[in-house]
Specification:
- The chain contains 15 helices and no strands.
- By secondary structure, it is an all-alpha fold.
- Helix 6 (118-130) runs antiparallel to helix 8, helix 9 (165-178) packs antiparallel against helix 10 (183-193) and helix 10 runs antiparallel to helix 11.
- The protein is globular and about 55 Å long.
Length: 299
Amino acid sequence: MKTNFFHFALVNIVMLFILYSNLWAATQEYEVTISQLYKEIEQNINPPVENEDITHQNSHIILNNAIELLKIAPNSSEAFCTLSYLDINYKFNDNALNIFKTLRSKHFASLNIVDKDEAEKLIFIRICLLFMPDVINAFPNENLKTTKKICFESLEKFKNECTNKDYSALATIILFLYDRKNEKGYGDFFKNNFPNHKALIFIELSKTTQLLINNDTHNCLEETFKLIQKHGTEITPDGYTFDVTCYSLIISCYIKLNDYNNAKKYLDFYEEKISAVNAELLKSSYVKNLKMQVENIQK
């Protein structure tokens, strides 16, 4: 009897170990997939200055990866960053336009059905709202006002009625990124309704950035330093800590204040931390433009 008991216990331990190992392996594979998808998006949409045409050449890859990432990781900070990257810097090539046309033919008539094909529909809406001229060129008979109205109504329905609350959160993010007049309302809605979504720190940072846009520079600095104190050590999709993302806003504030010494101080912090993770990012047009603005303070 004792032998049977130990045999039973041993079998259970082995089975639990196998189950844990499989779960761990699946989690690792899942995380690697998200990382790979996002990295390819980031590299193509924010290339070094000398390779800026890559964004246009590989815009179909960006679009496909964005859809796939939202399918497998709607609760990720990568999802927020991906939606943010799909802005005016994104440039259609013929393959990307064909993907967009396919999405339209599949989903435009049923955009208000919010519990099916959520990722594809949300990416379609994000692209549709941002690139209305391209939409009109692709569909000459499209009514701009009607299309925009349908997209907004669908986003509101996703926000309020989608069963999967991660997609409700992403719909709110699209509204937050697009409708700047109502940014505060959407930001507050996100914070109150999706407090556990991993994009929350970026929503808070975006709201803080709006202070700078509204010329409330000193308050922007104060709120940014609070964010660093609260979230500074969290790792972002780009591989560095959240404080690095905040440094770029701090630098912009000091540029606005014509404070060269502090702008240069945080630029040095920014470059040091970025280079420790990925020195190639220092070649991006964004970083080069930031450096140029700091250098111009003294001129």
